[in-house]
Amino acid sequence: MKFTLLGTGTSTGVPSIGCECETCTSDDPRDRRLRVSVLVEHDGQSVLIDTSSDFRQQALRQKLKRLDAVLITHCHADHIFGLDDIRPLNFRHGALGVYANERAWRDIRRIFQYVFEPSHFGGGLPQVVAHTVVDGAPFCLGRNLRVTPLEVIHGRLPVVAYRCNDFAYATDLSEIPPSTLESLRGLDVLVLDCLRLTSHPTHLSLERSLAYIEELKPRRAYLTHIAHDIKHERDSALLPPGVAFGYDGLEINDE
After folding, report:
1. Which helix or strand (DSSP H or E) is residue 154 part of?
2. CA neighbours closer than 13 Å in the CB half-sphere of residue 201
3. How is domain 2-253 classified at the CATH fold level?
4. How close are the terminal C-alpha atoms of the chain, in Å?
5. For 113-144, b where at least 16 C-beta lie within 10 A, e where not — what string?
6. Is residue 121 scored above 80 in pLDDT?
7. Which of these, 54, 80, 66, 58, lies nearest to 160 by C-alpha position?
8. What is the pLDDT of residues 49-95, one digit of tens each?
9. Domain range list for the chain
10. pTM (2 d.p.)
């Protein structure tokens, strides 16, 4: 199993437009962060979590040739606005299964109304096969990839974290409910939200991210959805063994 962090930045991306802070002007490529998404590859399956607003750029950089499914965490712009860019993959491989919870599907159908209620002819449309996921109800992609949707809280918004076998991806959250905590134990890899060093009302800060990691005790943990007040090399000194800041293009393999 391999996981590639395609993007690790917050909703504005890093560098942020008009900013001249130490991180935004850094020449360290690990400080250049596209909007968050991750590619999961296992046993012939290629699964994308979130079609970020930078998906086209990420797919070209990754030399992505096909996808077997897309998993959606929630419907904020930085996680969903790249959905239209699945069209070249549709041209070659047909309709693509997209998985999201009921609340996200309401927003996806509203935002991308032209996909689900076509009103014109000409031009390409994303070809989507809609699947609704339910908290705690696992499903399989291919023969050996077991996916379990798990609810986390992003301010007041329920968001879907995904456990894929012994890998879990939990972005955009401020709280992990007790039932989800139990479902996140025994992990090989946890990729977890960590917006900034100081507290935030809808995201985890570094202190809270590390507290969850200490409770869950995955073998390895990587932090994502990172804003520009975190500088990769400087702030990596704040992390305990087994925890690292993610960066765009990082490949995480089974060990």
Report:
1. strand 145-154
2. 3
3. Metallo-beta-lactamase; Chain A (3.60.15)
4. 9
5. eeeeeeeeeeeeebbbeeeebebeeeeebeee
6. no
7. 80
8. 999 999 999 999 999 999 999 999 999 999 999 999 999 999 999 99
9. 2-253
10. 0.96
